[in-house]
């Protein structure tokens, strides 16, 4: 773990609420602090309702913060819109249906995502010029047949192919920060394992900064250089580097016992 | 023969509505009720402008602008005001009823008798009967269709398509879906306004009640096109709408020949549309596909 890495994203004293201002108001993130450094590959653990998805929605801008500050490098982005944040942020959802446009082809989806965060103009898209590149790109997610189906509407793809495509779409234009929201959870064990391995390969190879929510303790331990545990809207555990590498499932499980 | 030519002309003119509705109902997945107000609005604006001495082209352009402005209001109600889709359209459509009467100076019907319209051109007058509407309709729908096909191939057009296909995903790649929705509604209602202007000039009058039932007519041309031509690419589907619109006019002609009168047309249009919409269910229930396949395909596809 190099100490020279710069803070990429800092969440300072973040509070988010649902049904704010009503009698049903619930505080989800409770004065949460998190600093993400360049090159961090963070696995995020936590039970249901701990605030993992809320954390992601806060970073992406879907959910406004009640108080606190979000900083990207030195810039305050607390109130930046969802669309504007996509200039540096990419996301893969758990549901294979959410990440791709069903009636558009694989190539069309890839072309759309290659312009993530950019202004869409009246310039012709020139899909054909990109086909060779897309062929190469999809072939890098080998053995799921995606590269042979560039002209297939994504609604006709399998769940595994769709998630592989969603992952490619999120990373084809390098994001400063990648959010993976249990992106393998809806797949069968074999496909899930395959996509996890490909994810790990690409994230480490390209030195992407990445947050990955998972419910698999094994995956959380196996991948990444840092592990955090969320509980009741706060980060209760945060290990990195050698300390994380030395972490075992037993230790983690006994930690989970203490917070429940 | 002249009846058939007339039907083709009407089909081409009414196809503007089908193509416009295709943008909202099909691509944007936005059932826009505004159009029943925008259509007579376009007619009212054009007819009033012509009555006040404007040229027919200027008048038609004004109708487009008026339609687009109406679409923008519906879009703002839906995206910024969070009014439900159907209600946003119905509100604006209802407001249009009063506005249209205001524009037409309080009378519910304004005639263009003796005025210069887009159909008064010397060359058009030399053509056989009804060929003027065929020619004007053909030019207008061709220009609109070609422009739309090119637009949909641009980066902005693709962002528009993906907004209708998967709003969440569109947002996650930085597309402002609210703006796309408003743009679509403006273009669509602009074309509807233009369609209203053309049809009013073709009829020779504007009437406040001429918008009633037009959603069904426009949808019928879309659905007939889809039922008749089956699996098509997006560009082909746009062209199929025009062909569907012409087919619809043929059906209308047939029905009138059978002895029904024009007052029955709304009922019959609704029936035709309902039947077309239920066709997939019928064919499932009657195993039509299975029966058809059995004749030509091998034992079992699977």
From TrEMBL, chain A:
<dbReference type="InterPro" id="IPR050166">
    <property type="entry name" value="ABC_transporter_ATP-bind"/>
</dbReference>
<protein>
    <submittedName>
        <fullName>ABC transporter ATP-binding protein</fullName>
    </submittedName>
</protein>
<keyword id="KW-0813">Transport</keyword>
<keyword id="KW-0472">Membrane</keyword>
<keyword id="KW-1003">Cell membrane</keyword>
<dbReference type="GO" id="GO:0005524">
    <property type="term" value="F:ATP binding"/>
</dbReference>
<feature type="domain" description="ABC transporter">
    <location>
        <begin position="9"/>
        <end position="257"/>
    </location>
</feature>
<dbReference type="InterPro" id="IPR017871">
    <property type="entry name" value="ABC_transporter-like_CS"/>
</dbReference>
<dbReference type="InterPro" id="IPR003439">
    <property type="entry name" value="ABC_transporter-like_ATP-bd"/>
</dbReference>
<dbReference type="InterPro" id="IPR003593">
    <property type="entry name" value="AAA+_ATPase"/>
</dbReference>
<keyword id="KW-0067">ATP-binding</keyword>
<dbReference type="InterPro" id="IPR027417">
    <property type="entry name" value="P-loop_NTPase"/>
</dbReference>
<keyword id="KW-0547">Nucleotide-binding</keyword>
<dbReference type="Pfam" id="PF00005">
    <property type="entry name" value="ABC_tran"/>
</dbReference>
From TrEMBL, chain B:
<keyword id="KW-0472">Membrane</keyword>
<feature type="transmembrane region" description="Helical">
    <location>
        <begin position="238"/>
        <end position="260"/>
    </location>
</feature>
<feature type="transmembrane region" description="Helical">
    <location>
        <begin position="57"/>
        <end position="78"/>
    </location>
</feature>
<feature type="transmembrane region" description="Helical">
    <location>
        <begin position="134"/>
        <end position="162"/>
    </location>
</feature>
<dbReference type="InterPro" id="IPR001851">
    <property type="entry name" value="ABC_transp_permease"/>
</dbReference>
<keyword id="KW-1133">Transmembrane helix</keyword>
<feature type="transmembrane region" description="Helical">
    <location>
        <begin position="183"/>
        <end position="202"/>
    </location>
</feature>
<keyword id="KW-1003">Cell membrane</keyword>
<feature type="transmembrane region" description="Helical">
    <location>
        <begin position="266"/>
        <end position="283"/>
    </location>
</feature>
<keyword id="KW-0812">Transmembrane</keyword>
<feature type="transmembrane region" description="Helical">
    <location>
        <begin position="12"/>
        <end position="28"/>
    </location>
</feature>
<feature type="transmembrane region" description="Helical">
    <location>
        <begin position="85"/>
        <end position="103"/>
    </location>
</feature>
<dbReference type="Pfam" id="PF02653">
    <property type="entry name" value="BPD_transp_2"/>
</dbReference>
<protein>
    <submittedName>
        <fullName>ABC transporter permease</fullName>
    </submittedName>
</protein>
<feature type="transmembrane region" description="Helical">
    <location>
        <begin position="208"/>
        <end position="229"/>
    </location>
</feature>
């Amino acid at each position: 773990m190099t100490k020279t890495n710069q803070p990429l994203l800092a969440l300072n004293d973040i509070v988010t609420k649902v049904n704010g201002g009503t009698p049903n108001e619930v505080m989800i993130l409770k004065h949460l602090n998190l600093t993400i450094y360049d090159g961090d590959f963070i696995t995020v653990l936590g039970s249901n309702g701990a605030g993992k998805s809320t954390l992601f929605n806060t970073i992406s801008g879907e959910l406004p913060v009640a108080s606190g500050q979000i900083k990207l490098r030195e810039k305050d982005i607390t109130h930046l819109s969802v669309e504007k944040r996509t200039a540096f942020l990419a996301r893969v959802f758990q549901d294979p249906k959410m990440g791709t446009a069903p009636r558009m082809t694989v190539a069309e989806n890839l072309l759309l995502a290659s312009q993530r965060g950019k202004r869409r103009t009246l310039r012709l898209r020139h899909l054909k010029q990109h086909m060779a590149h897309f062929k190469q790109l999809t072939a890098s997610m080998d053995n799921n047949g995606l590269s042979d189906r560039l002209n297939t509407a994504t609604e006709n793809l399998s769940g595994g192919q769709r998630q592989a495509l969603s992952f490619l779409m999120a990373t084809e234009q390098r994001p400063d920060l990648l959010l993976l929201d249990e992106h393998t959870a809806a797949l069968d064990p074999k496909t899930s394992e395959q996509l996890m391995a490909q994810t790990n390969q690409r994230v480490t190879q390209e030195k992407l900064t990445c947050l990955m929510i998972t419910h698999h303790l094994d995956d959380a331990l196996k991948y990444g250089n840092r592990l955090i545990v969320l509980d009741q809207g706060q980060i209760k555990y945060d290990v990195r580097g050698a300390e994380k590498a030395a972490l075992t499932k037993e230790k983690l499980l006994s930690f989970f016992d203490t917070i429940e | 023969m002249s009846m058939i030519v007339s039907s083709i002309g009407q089909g081409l003119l009414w196809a503007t509505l089908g193509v416009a509705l295709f943008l909202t109902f099909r691509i944007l997945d936005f059932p826009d009720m505004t159009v029943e107000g925008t259509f007579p609005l376009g007619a009212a604006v054009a007819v009033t402008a012509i009555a006040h001495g404007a040229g027919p082209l200027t008048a038609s352009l004004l109708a487009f602008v008026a339609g687009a402005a109406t679409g923008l209001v519906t879009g703002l109600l839906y995206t910024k005001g969070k009014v439900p889709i159907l209600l946003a359209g119905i509100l604006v459509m209802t407001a249009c009823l009063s506005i249209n009467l205001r524009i037409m100076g309080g009378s519910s019907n304004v005639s263009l008798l003796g005025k210069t319209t887009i159909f008064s051109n010397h060359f058009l007058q030399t053509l056989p009967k009804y060929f003027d509407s065929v020619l004007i309709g053909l030019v207008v729908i061709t220009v609109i269709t070609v422009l739309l096909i090119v637009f949909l191939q641009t980066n902005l057009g693709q962002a528009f398509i993906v907004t209708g296909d998967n709003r969440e995903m569109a947002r996650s790649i930085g597309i402002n879906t609210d703006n796309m929705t408003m743009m679509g509604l403006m273009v669509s209602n602009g074309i509807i306004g233009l369609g209203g202007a053309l049809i009013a000039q073709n009829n020779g009058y504007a009437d406040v009640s001429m918008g009633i039932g037009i959603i069904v007519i426009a949808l019928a041309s879309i659905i007939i096109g889809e039922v008749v031509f089956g699996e098509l690419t997006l560009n082909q589907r746009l062209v199929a709408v025009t062909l569907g619109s012409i087919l619809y006019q043929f059906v209308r002609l047939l029905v009138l020949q059978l002895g029904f009168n024009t007052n029955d047309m709304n009922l019959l249009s609704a029936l035709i549309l309902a039947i077309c919409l239920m066709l997939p269910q019928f064919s499932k229930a009657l195993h039509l596909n299975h029966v058809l396949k059995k004749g030509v395909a091998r034992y079992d596809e699977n």
